[in-house]
Specification:
Layout lengths: L7 H6 L1 H10 L4 H10 L1 H22 L2 E5 L3 E7 L3 E9 L9 H10 L5 E9 L4 H10 L3 E2 L3 H11 L1
Antiparallel strand pairs: 1-2, 1-5, 2-3, 3-4
Helix pairs in contact: 3-4, 4-6
Length: 157
């Protein structure tokens, strides 16, 4: 397995897609029930293959990932040849970016002392989707990139 198995909830949401996946392998509903009952290892392998296919499809479309903690914000743009990072660190005691109040403070004070903004570029490894997946596994969330683009525009000025 290249990535990780989809959660039970994710698999339930993807039920119609999973049925289509089984159909492409000429596995009927009755045959699937039989496989689950009599060959649980084969059923597990099928779920793993399906999970990898879904992850590949999702990761291929991801262009922005954010990872926000109490004092740091990592905003990634995942381009075709490299990933770009805008890293923001808060040095203001008591400010927590994960709270409404902390983020409101940040919005009003991000250009002042107490806020450090850095950028970096990094080439992908041989497996671009695996690099993206690792960012997600470390707590990153797929986004539409509003925060990244906002700060990218400020940095470019």
């Amino acid at each position: 397995m290249k990535y990780r198995r989809l959660t039970k909830e994710q698999l339930e949401e993807m039920h119609p897609e999973f049925i289509n996946f089984l159909a492409t392998q000429s596995i009927t509903a009755n045959e699937w029930d039989d496989i689950k009952k009599n060959k649980p290892q084969v059923a597990e392998e099928e779920i793993d293959v399906f999970s990898d296919l879904i992850w590949e499809g999702v990761l291929g479309k991801v262009h922005y990932i954010e990872n926000i903690s109490a004092t740091e914000m990592h905003l990634f743009y995942l381009g075709n040849k490299e990933m770009k990072l805008i890293a923001i660190r808060i040095h203001q005691p008591g400010v927590d970016l994960t709270t409404k109040q902390g983020f409101a403070w940040f919005k009003s004070n991000f250009l002042k002392d107490g806020v450090e903004i850095m950028t970096a570029n990094k080439a992908y490894s041989e497996d671009v989707n695996k690099d993206k997946f690792e960012l997600i596994e470390k707590g990153g969330v797929i986004t539409k990139g509003e925060l990244y683009r906002y700060f990218d525009d400020i940095i470019d000025e």
